[in-house]
Amino acid sequence: MLIRGQRFLQRTSLISPNPAGILVVKSMKVLLAFYSKTGNTEKLANKISKSLSSVQGVEIVIHKVVPPQDYKLPYLNPRALKDALSREGTPDVEGVDVSEFDLVMVAAPTWFERPAPPIIGFVEKSRGYEGKKAVAITTSISARSVYAKRLAEKLRERGFDVVGWYSLKKSDLPEEVADELKKLVSSEKAG
Ligand SMILES: Cc1cc2nc3c(=O)[nH]c(=O)nc-3n(C[C@H](O)[C@H](O)[C@H](O)COP(=O)(O)O)c2cc1C
Hints:
Blueprint: H1 2-14, E1 15-17, E2 23-25, E3 28-34, H2 40-52, E4 58-64, H3 78-85, E5 103-111, E6 114-115, H4 117-125, E7 133-140, H5 145-157, E8 161-169, H6 175-190
Parallel strand pairs: 3-4, 3-5, 5-7, 7-8
Antiparallel strand pairs: 1-2, 5-6
Protein backbone atom coordinates (compact mmCIF):
# COMPACT_ATOMS: atom_id res chain seq x y z
CA MET A 1 0.00 0.00 0.00
CA LEU A 2 2.81 2.38 0.97
CA ILE A 3 4.69 1.63 -2.26
CA ARG A 4 1.58 2.37 -4.31
CA GLY A 5 1.17 5.68 -2.43
CA GLN A 6 4.74 6.71 -3.17
CA ARG A 7 4.32 5.86 -6.83
CA PHE A 8 1.16 7.92 -6.94
CA LEU A 9 2.94 10.94 -5.41
CA GLN A 10 5.73 10.64 -7.97
CA ARG A 11 3.26 10.64 -10.81
CA THR A 12 1.29 13.61 -9.52
CA SER A 13 4.48 15.66 -9.19
CA LEU A 14 5.01 15.10 -12.91
CA ILE A 15 1.55 16.26 -13.87
CA SER A 16 0.17 19.78 -13.51
CA PRO A 17 -2.95 21.49 -14.84
CA ASN A 18 -2.46 24.18 -17.50
CA PRO A 19 -4.73 27.28 -17.56
CA ALA A 20 -7.31 25.36 -19.61
CA GLY A 21 -7.48 22.73 -16.84
CA ILE A 22 -5.94 20.05 -19.03
CA LEU A 23 -3.36 17.85 -17.34
CA VAL A 24 0.07 18.11 -18.97
CA VAL A 25 3.23 16.13 -18.26
CA LYS A 26 5.96 18.36 -16.82
CA SER A 27 9.42 17.57 -18.10
CA MET A 28 12.63 18.00 -16.16
CA LYS A 29 15.21 20.19 -17.87
CA VAL A 30 18.88 19.27 -17.55
CA LEU A 31 21.73 21.41 -18.83
CA LEU A 32 24.83 19.40 -19.68
CA ALA A 33 27.67 21.88 -20.23
CA PHE A 34 31.15 20.72 -21.18
CA TYR A 35 34.45 21.76 -22.67
CA SER A 36 36.62 19.32 -24.62
CA LYS A 37 39.95 19.83 -26.30
CA THR A 38 40.89 16.33 -27.48
CA GLY A 39 37.43 14.71 -27.54
CA ASN A 40 37.23 12.64 -24.32
CA THR A 41 34.83 14.91 -22.45
CA GLU A 42 32.68 15.37 -25.55
CA LYS A 43 32.40 11.58 -25.97
CA LEU A 44 31.53 11.27 -22.29
CA ALA A 45 28.88 14.02 -22.56
CA ASN A 46 27.29 12.15 -25.48
CA LYS A 47 27.29 8.91 -23.48
CA ILE A 48 25.66 10.65 -20.49
CA SER A 49 23.05 12.28 -22.71
CA LYS A 50 22.24 8.95 -24.38
CA SER A 51 21.98 7.20 -21.03
CA LEU A 52 19.72 9.91 -19.50
CA SER A 53 17.48 9.95 -22.55
CA SER A 54 16.12 6.59 -21.39
CA VAL A 55 14.60 8.33 -18.33
CA GLN A 56 11.06 9.44 -19.16
CA GLY A 57 10.17 13.13 -18.92
CA VAL A 58 13.74 14.41 -19.10
CA GLU A 59 14.85 17.05 -21.56
CA ILE A 60 18.62 17.43 -21.95
CA VAL A 61 20.20 20.53 -23.42
CA ILE A 62 23.86 20.08 -24.33
CA HIS A 63 26.05 23.17 -24.27
CA LYS A 64 29.57 22.99 -25.63
CA VAL A 65 31.84 25.69 -24.21
CA VAL A 66 33.99 27.13 -27.00
CA PRO A 67 36.61 29.75 -26.10
CA PRO A 68 36.95 32.40 -28.86
CA GLN A 69 40.66 31.57 -29.01
CA ASP A 70 41.11 27.92 -28.13
CA TYR A 71 44.33 26.62 -26.59
CA LYS A 72 47.01 24.96 -28.63
CA LEU A 73 48.51 21.65 -27.63
CA PRO A 74 51.05 20.42 -26.40
CA TYR A 75 50.29 20.15 -22.69
CA LEU A 76 52.93 22.56 -21.53
CA ASN A 77 51.43 25.59 -23.18
CA PRO A 78 52.22 28.70 -21.08
CA ARG A 79 48.83 30.36 -21.71
CA ALA A 80 46.96 27.17 -20.70
CA LEU A 81 49.07 26.89 -17.55
CA LYS A 82 48.56 30.55 -16.62
CA ASP A 83 44.75 30.37 -17.12
CA ALA A 84 44.50 27.00 -15.34
CA LEU A 85 46.16 28.53 -12.27
CA SER A 86 43.97 31.66 -12.29
CA ARG A 87 40.71 31.73 -10.29
CA GLU A 88 38.75 33.17 -13.23
CA GLY A 89 39.84 30.62 -15.85
CA THR A 90 39.68 31.62 -19.53
CA PRO A 91 38.82 35.33 -19.52
CA ASP A 92 36.72 35.71 -22.71
CA VAL A 93 34.44 32.66 -22.44
CA GLU A 94 30.67 33.31 -22.50
CA GLY A 95 28.32 31.99 -19.84
CA VAL A 96 24.60 31.17 -19.98
CA ASP A 97 21.55 31.83 -17.82
CA VAL A 98 20.88 28.53 -16.05
CA SER A 99 17.72 29.64 -14.21
CA GLU A 100 15.39 27.70 -16.57
CA PHE A 101 17.07 24.35 -15.73
CA ASP A 102 16.23 21.98 -12.88
CA LEU A 103 19.70 20.44 -12.81
CA VAL A 104 23.04 21.54 -14.25
CA MET A 105 25.79 19.03 -15.10
CA VAL A 106 29.22 20.48 -15.75
CA ALA A 107 31.91 18.30 -17.35
CA ALA A 108 35.54 19.34 -17.76
CA PRO A 109 38.89 17.87 -18.72
CA THR A 110 41.58 18.21 -16.05
CA TRP A 111 44.50 20.48 -16.82
CA PHE A 112 47.41 20.72 -14.41
CA GLU A 113 45.30 19.00 -11.73
CA ARG A 114 42.48 21.57 -12.07
CA PRO A 115 39.27 21.83 -14.12
CA ALA A 116 40.26 23.12 -17.59
CA PRO A 117 40.11 26.95 -17.62
CA PRO A 118 37.30 27.33 -20.22
CA ILE A 119 34.92 25.61 -17.78
CA ILE A 120 36.03 27.85 -14.91
CA GLY A 121 35.43 30.88 -17.17
CA PHE A 122 32.01 29.46 -18.09
CA VAL A 123 31.04 28.93 -14.43
CA GLU A 124 32.26 32.44 -13.55
CA LYS A 125 30.25 34.07 -16.35
CA SER A 126 27.01 32.08 -16.07
CA ARG A 127 24.04 33.44 -14.14
CA GLY A 128 20.97 32.27 -12.26
CA TYR A 129 22.41 29.41 -10.25
CA GLU A 130 21.72 30.44 -6.66
CA GLY A 131 20.57 27.21 -4.94
CA LYS A 132 20.45 25.36 -8.28
CA LYS A 133 21.35 21.67 -8.14
CA ALA A 134 24.54 20.70 -9.94
CA VAL A 135 26.74 17.71 -10.72
CA ALA A 136 30.52 18.09 -11.26
CA ILE A 137 32.23 15.69 -13.67
CA THR A 138 35.90 15.67 -14.63
CA THR A 139 37.83 13.56 -17.12
CA SER A 140 41.56 12.93 -16.84
CA ILE A 141 44.25 10.29 -17.29
CA SER A 142 44.67 9.47 -13.61
CA ALA A 143 41.06 10.09 -12.42
CA ARG A 144 42.17 11.31 -8.97
CA SER A 145 39.08 12.06 -6.91
CA VAL A 146 40.43 15.49 -5.97
CA TYR A 147 39.94 16.64 -9.58
CA ALA A 148 36.14 16.42 -9.44
CA LYS A 149 36.18 17.77 -5.86
CA ARG A 150 37.91 20.91 -7.13
CA LEU A 151 35.21 21.47 -9.75
CA ALA A 152 32.53 20.80 -7.11
CA GLU A 153 34.17 23.42 -4.85
CA LYS A 154 34.09 25.97 -7.66
CA LEU A 155 30.40 25.28 -8.28
CA ARG A 156 29.63 25.63 -4.55
CA GLU A 157 31.55 28.92 -4.39
CA ARG A 158 29.24 30.26 -7.10
CA GLY A 159 26.10 29.26 -5.18
CA PHE A 160 25.29 25.83 -6.67
CA ASP A 161 23.98 23.03 -4.47
CA VAL A 162 26.32 20.21 -5.60
CA VAL A 163 24.48 16.89 -5.42
CA GLY A 164 27.16 14.69 -7.01
CA TRP A 165 30.73 14.72 -8.26
CA TYR A 166 32.57 12.15 -10.37
CA SER A 167 36.21 11.92 -11.42
CA LEU A 168 36.30 9.74 -14.55
CA LYS A 169 39.04 8.29 -16.72
CA LYS A 170 39.13 9.64 -20.30
CA SER A 171 35.65 9.10 -21.78
CA ASP A 172 34.76 6.07 -19.62
CA LEU A 173 31.27 6.09 -18.13
CA PRO A 174 31.13 3.22 -15.59
CA GLU A 175 27.72 1.59 -15.34
CA GLU A 176 27.35 2.49 -11.66
CA VAL A 177 27.95 6.18 -12.44
CA ALA A 178 25.42 6.08 -15.30
CA ASP A 179 22.91 4.51 -12.89
CA GLU A 180 23.57 7.13 -10.20
CA LEU A 181 23.06 9.95 -12.70
CA LYS A 182 19.78 8.39 -13.82
CA LYS A 183 18.67 8.12 -10.18
CA LEU A 184 19.60 11.76 -9.55
CA VAL A 185 17.59 12.92 -12.54
CA SER A 186 14.63 10.75 -11.54
CA SER A 187 14.64 12.03 -7.96
CA GLU A 188 14.83 15.65 -9.17
CA LYS A 189 11.88 14.98 -11.41
CA ALA A 190 9.89 13.58 -8.52
CA GLY A 191 10.93 16.31 -6.06
C1 LIG B 1 47.10 20.94 -20.80
C2 LIG B 1 46.74 19.58 -20.24
C3 LIG B 1 46.99 19.27 -18.91
C4 LIG B 1 46.61 18.01 -18.39
N1 LIG B 1 46.81 17.76 -17.05
C5 LIG B 1 46.40 16.56 -16.53
C6 LIG B 1 46.55 16.29 -15.14
O1 LIG B 1 47.03 17.11 -14.35
N2 LIG B 1 46.16 15.06 -14.66
C7 LIG B 1 45.63 14.09 -15.50
O2 LIG B 1 45.32 13.00 -15.03
N3 LIG B 1 45.44 14.35 -16.82
C8 LIG B 1 45.80 15.56 -17.35
N4 LIG B 1 45.61 15.82 -18.68
C9 LIG B 1 44.88 14.82 -19.52
C10 LIG B 1 43.42 15.23 -19.72
O3 LIG B 1 42.80 15.64 -18.51
C11 LIG B 1 42.57 14.08 -20.26
O4 LIG B 1 43.16 13.52 -21.40
C12 LIG B 1 41.16 14.57 -20.55
O5 LIG B 1 40.28 13.46 -20.63
C13 LIG B 1 41.12 15.35 -21.85
O6 LIG B 1 39.79 15.73 -22.13
P1 LIG B 1 39.37 16.18 -23.60
O7 LIG B 1 39.80 15.09 -24.55
O8 LIG B 1 37.89 16.34 -23.52
O9 LIG B 1 40.06 17.47 -23.90
C14 LIG B 1 45.99 17.05 -19.23
C15 LIG B 1 45.78 17.36 -20.59
C16 LIG B 1 46.14 18.61 -21.10
C17 LIG B 1 45.86 18.92 -22.55
